[in-house]
Amino acid sequence: MKSQISTNQNDNNEKTKNSYGKIYTDIEFLNSQIDLVCHATEDKSKILDSIFKILLISDEKFQETEYEGHWGNKILKLTATINKKESLSLIKKILGAISFVERDALLNNLENHIDEKGNLFLRLDKQKTCKNKISLTENEGIKIKFKPNKNKIIELKRSNRIENEIYLLYRRLIQFSEK
């Protein structure tokens, strides 16, 4: 009896692993764009070091644009674009690291994170990133835009509308992400 239960548990684990792996083959990103603002009071190198440590995105990928704030203070906008392979790795890392509560909140508000073109938008807490933690936020932080490959989604299309298909793929991606 015990071996039968063990076999059933193994079968369920295999199904979960297969579902998890299949989700990452169903969705493909063309690229991702990462944007963040670094104020004069913040240490740019510490932020970029933390992003590299946690998200594995090199500071060499970031382009800097300097602005002047209302009171004459220096503000840097840092932008990086990463390729499809790095984008998939990044989404896996983020979804695997967020808490159950954050994942649940993301699922419940998913439509607020997807634009009319099917891009997925996430914001990471910059302060927590500097403390080597991945956490989602609604405030200013590290903004990430994941741009999906719609051609791949069209090939797999199960519903009548591509928007529905993108939404469903994102839901499955979030639901089945491993912790």
* String of helices and strands: HEHEEHHEHEHH
The percentage helix is: 40-55%
Which strand order do you get reading across the main beta sheet?
A: 2-3-1-5-4
Q: What is the gyration radius calculated from CA atoms?
A: 19 Å
CATH superfamily of the domain at 20-34 and 81-175: Ribosomal protein L5
Beta-strand percentage range: 15-25%
List the helices and strands and how they pair.
Blueprint: H1 2-26, E1 29-39, H2 44-55, E2 63-68, E3 74-83, H3 84-97, H4 100-108, E4 120-124, H5 126-130, E5 142-148, H6 150-155, H7 162-175
Protein described:
With 179 residues, the protein is α+β, with helices and mostly antiparallel strands. It has a domain at 20-34 and 81-175: 2-Layer Sandwich (50s Ribosomal Protein L5, Chain: A), CATH 3.30.1440.10. Helix content is 47%, strand content 22%. It has seven helices and five strands. A five-stranded antiparallel β-sheet has the order 2-3-1-5-4. A hairpin with a 5-residue loop joins strand 2 and strand 3. 22% of the residues are buried.
